[in-house]
């Protein structure tokens, strides 16, 4: 064996562990690179063709040398590919950061790299010591209050949540017999991405989206685009104060994890007040295992910490959901995962 062949095959002891630590230590830099790129509109500028660093710098009004360095970092992250010195195309992942592509995650990337999401993380040590959200430390108000004061950011958040729901929206309609219900009430349903997918797949039921005025702001356009305006009623309200009557199925997706146990029980008790005895409560959230599985995706656990620093909620285990349901007057009926790549589970409960 030649020295070159030996060198090629040799992997230093502990290299993979070292690589894991190094990637995590540099992870915040990757987030910043992504955030700058989506705010500048790099991926839309490159488009479906090829862009050069000099051409992008002229279009963006940025420094040519620094722009090249940014683009090469994006190529290193797998979002662009450098086809010739200083020339770039988007990869499949980069295409998801263009505004016009099906399944785009552009708003989600902009939202989760925005200071409104990132700054509270600077105080994670404080949150771990106290168990309290740190968003107020950074901004002087709570997260949803901050969104209410910034309508453009609120709109971006709504679109981002719709984009985050797309994979679940593709899987959920075939996971459950929604056709047996007369009216489905989507509590905290935002722009209606999930409910629209269910109603398109099941022509029988009607729908209600119950949310704040800010949360419903993008729903009319979404429903009109899906041809569902006549099948869905938009109801403005506060799920901490009440729930609308008239549903057979009450659906909450990515709502419960935003709040403390006490707040969640309040939300669920309002639903229990109006749901018929034959009705169904459905919660769509990640469900954490009792013990972290080796090789599991870290997304649900990072989301759990995001709930801690930014909104005060948390991700939960099946036992946690059972306890919430019991306290609110429901009995847990089933917990089932949606097909991968979903991180979501379907938690079903019945009134007692």
Walk me through what this model shows:
- One of its GO terms (biological process) is methylation.
- Keywords: Methyltransferase, S-adenosyl-L-methionine, Transferase.
- Residues 121-331 form the O-methyltransferase C-terminal domain.
- This is Methyltransferase.
- The chain has 352 residues and is α/β, with parallel strands linked by helices.
- Helices cover 47% and strands 16% of the residues.
- The chain has helices spanning 3-9, 15-25, 27-40, 42-46, 53-60, 64-76, 92-95, 106-112, 115-118, 124-130, 135-139, 143-149, 151-171, 193-201, 219-225, 261-274, 299-311, 318-328, and strands at 51-52, 80-84, 87-90, 183-187, 206-211, 232-236, 249-253, 280-285, 287-288, 316-317, 330-337, 345-351.
- The protein is globular.
- The model has no long low-confidence stretch (mean pLDDT 94).
């Amino acid at each position: 064996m030649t020295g070159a062949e030996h060198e090629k095959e040799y992997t230093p002891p502990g290299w993979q562990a070292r690589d894991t630590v190094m990637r995590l230590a540099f992870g915040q830099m990757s987030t910043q690179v992504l955030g700058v790129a989506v705010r500048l509109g790099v991926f839309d500028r490159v488009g479906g063709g090829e862009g050069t660093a000099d051409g992008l710098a002229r279009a963006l009004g940025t420094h040519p040398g620094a722009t090249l360095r940014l683009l090469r970092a994006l190529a290193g992250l797998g979002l662009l590919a450098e086809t010739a010195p200083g020339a770039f195309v988007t990869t499949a992942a980069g295409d998801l950061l263009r505004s016009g592509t099906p399944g785009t995650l552009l708003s989600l990337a902009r939202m989760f790299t925005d200071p409104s999401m990132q700054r509270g993380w600077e105080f994670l040590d404080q949150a771990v010591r106290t168990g309290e959200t740190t968003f107020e430390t950074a901004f002087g108000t709570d997260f949803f209050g901050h969104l209410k004061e910034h309508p453009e950011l609120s709109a971006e958040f709504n679109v981002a949540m719709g984009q985050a729901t797309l994979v679940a929206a593709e899987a959920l309609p075939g996971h459950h017999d929604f056709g047996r219900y007369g009216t489905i009430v989507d509590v905290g349903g935002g722009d209606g991405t999930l409910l629209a997918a269910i109603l398109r797949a099941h022509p029988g039921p009607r729908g209600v989206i119950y949310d704040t005025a800010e949360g419903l702001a993008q729903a009319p356009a979404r429903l009109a685009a899906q041809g569902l305006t006549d099948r869905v009623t938009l109801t403005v309200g506060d799920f901490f104060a009440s729930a609308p009557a008239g549903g057979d199925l009450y659906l909450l997706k990515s709502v419960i994890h935003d709040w403390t146990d006490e707040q969640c029980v309040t939300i669920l008790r309002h639903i229990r007040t109006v749901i018929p005895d034959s009705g169904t409560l459905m919660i769509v959230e990640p469900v954490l295992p009792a013990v972290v599985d080796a090789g599991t995706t870290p997304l649900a656990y990072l989301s759990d910490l995001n709930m801690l620093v930014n909104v005060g909620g948390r991700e939960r285990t099946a036992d946690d959901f059972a306890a919430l349901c019991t306290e609110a007057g429901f009995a847990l009926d089933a917990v089932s995962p949606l097909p991968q790549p979903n991180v979501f589970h379907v938690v079903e409960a019945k009134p007692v």
